[in-house]
Amino acid sequence: MVKVAIAGGSGQVAREVIDALLAADKHEITILSRNEPSSKCVISPGLHWRVVDYNDKNALAVALRGTHTLLSFVQPLSETGYQSQKNLIDASIVAQVTRFAPSEWGAAGTVNMPWWVVKEQIRQYLKKVNENGRVLEYTLFQPGLFLDYLASPYQTAKYVAPLDTTFDFQNRRAFVVDGHADAVMTFTTAADLAAVVARAVGYNDGEWSEVSGIRGNRVTVSRVIEIGERVRGSSFAIDKVKLEDLEAGSLQTSWTMEKPKKHQAVSDEEAVALFKTVTIGMLLSSVKGAWDVSDEVNQLFPDYKFEEIETFLARAWGGKP
């Protein structure tokens, strides 16, 4: 048993992981949060809640004392800088935390994704911390895109809510960068991510690798559409967008989401503009390999069976209009 702290533990992805850790029944878990738990929050046995101020490094160090593993789910979209996670790292070093995982939970790269600039800053800060020798063991958990998002507007994960992407399975359509239908993307279910992260927390046969790629499904854009057409029973309308238009910040498409499914950290007013920014960024970054994640976790746990994309989508869309 180890003591595990979860920063930003009220978030959707965090709650998926917390449930998997509780199911393992091996750890003492403390949720670090800026706020008291809501009335809807059920505190399970073995789970503790601690209100913290991410701006107070000394208080954070006290809160982290005795912690073996710290998993961060601090939301980059709500950060104006990267101070919260920087303070968590500094406090972890003072408190002698053994392992740290920053708020990644996505792509391997951050190219053309300005909404994730904080992730790149934290990556660089962690490298700097260990530049003269390992001070803090850390890893970047990268599952690619949640496969659950391809079921939007239906929710398939316990906590991770639907989110619209460049693939619109409901209306049988998609955006594709002209000439780049062979771009590779990684899709992993939220349930699989949670399960293997829980395994990684309990792993004690060696150190974590600096990157922990989680490769649920590695497929091309054209393969996603091919599967989509099969499970939805008809062809997809494909909007081919020019790479040069995207690089210029222009999204020349015949349709857009009037009320896109959005992340909980985004306001209704911001959602439409952010959808355009994210769409351009997703298309560009996929062409540049950002969503082709590595497979360190697959190699670490070769017996784990990830849900296959076609099986998942057939179940998610079976019987849907």
UniProtKB/TrEMBL annotation:
Residues annotated as domain NmrA-like: 3-247
* Gene3D superfamilies linked to this entry: NAD(P)-binding Rossmann-like Domain, UDP-galactose 4-epimerase, domain 1
Q: Which UniProt keywords apply?
A: NADP, Oxidoreductase
Q: Which organism is it from?
A: Coniochaeta ligniaria NRRL 30616
The protein's matches in Pfam families, at most eight in alphabetical order, are given as: NmrA
Q: What is this protein's record name? A: NAD(P)-binding protein
Which family would the database say this protein is a member of? Belongs to the NmrA-type oxidoreductase family. Isoflavone reductase subfamily.
InterPro entries named among the record's database cross-references: NAD(P)-bd_dom_sf, NmrA-like, NmrA/Isoflavone_reductase-like
A molecular function (GO) term:
oxidoreductase activity
